[in-house]
Amino acid sequence: MATLDELFAKIAAGRKPAPAGPVEYLIVGLGNPGPKYNGTRHNAGFMALDALAEKLGTRVEKLQFKALTGDAVIGGKRVLLLKPGTFMNLSGQAVQEAAAFHKVPMDRVLVLMDDVSLPVGALRIRKKGSAGGHNGLKNIIYLTGRDDFPRVKIGVGQKPHPDYDLADWVLGRFSPEDRKTLQPLFDQMPEICRLFAEGKLEEAMSRYNRTPASKPARQEEGTP
After folding, report:
1. What are 99-124's pLDDT values in tens digits?
2. Backbone torsions φ then ψ of 36, nearest 5 degrees
3. CB of 102 within 8 A of CB of 119?
4. End-to-end Cα distance, the chain
5. Residue pair 115/133 in contact by the 8 Å Cβ criterion
6. Is 42 an active-site residue?
7. CB–CB of 190/180 below 8 Å?
8. What does the radius of gyration of the chain's CA atoms come to, in whole angstroms?
9. CB of 41 within 8 A of CB of 171?
10. How far apart are alpha carbons 169 and 116 in whole angstroms?
11. Which of 42, 102, 134, 161 is the catalytic position?
12. Cα gap 187→182, rounded to integer Å
């Protein structure tokens, strides 16, 4: 039987060394914290960030900046992965604090987010833009005073009909079929984020922006 020292040595050997140097980029997944919201449409940003962290072999579990954070190296750059713990509508608090502390300019902050205007399976990378009715994005813009930061919009599908309550829709969970449709998008996050960290966002847009031809996107609607 292995001794306690041997067990600790094995654990340490399996860990990747902590990234060195200053944080140069932030990658932020938007969502609501807590088991109640796991797997909901509004948590697509959290899901994308978790998939990214898993591929990178790191964990987003350190509590700081009103968020859970994780360290990673992407494209040779030290990157802070961040999941705000303030609930969606106050996401900007965590982003503003982390960016200010690490002196990261907003054009080096990539936001992963849900988008109800896009069908499930669609993805849109944008360099900048308005909140489009998304309150998480709106709070980031309000608190940082900037809207010129890139974002990855993950299609979660439109309401089934106009009278359907939007809050109920975005706080509803993905069906197993939708989860299967989204998985290829989550699998692409490491490459998208690598291109972002290497200053190749245009290439990422050219390679990964897509909308399934059978489900055209409509104008964005507001989300809670």
Report:
1. 999 999 999 999 999 999 899 989 99
2. -60, -30
3. no
4. 55
5. no
6. yes
7. no
8. 18
9. yes
10. 9
11. 42
12. 9
Whether the pLDDT of residue 162 is over 90: the answer is no
Q: Residue 102 has which token pair?
A: 């690490």
Nearest to 30 by CA among 194, 204, 183, 153: 153
Query: What is the DSSP code string of the chain?
Result: ---HHHHHHHHHHHSPPPPPS---EEEEE----SGGGTTBGGGHHHHHHHHHHHHHT----EEETTEEEEEEEETTEEEEEEEESS-GGGHHHHHHHHHHHHT--GGGEEEEEEETTS-TT-EEEESS---TTBHHHHHHHHHHS---S-EEEEE----SSTTS-HHHHHTSBPPHHHHHHHHHHHHTHHHHHHHHHTT-HHHHHHHH-B--TTS-------B-
Confidence of residue 163 (pLDDT cuts 50, 70, 90): confident
Polymer length in residues for the chain: 224
Distance in angstroms (rounded) separating the CA atoms of residues 181 and 119: 10
Tokens of 174: 């993905």
Which candidate, 152, 156, 176, places its Cα nearest to that of 166?
156
Query: CA–CA separation, 152 vs 126, rounded Å?
Result: 7
- The CA distances from residue 112 to 18, 39, 150, 184, in Å, are 24, 15, 9, 15
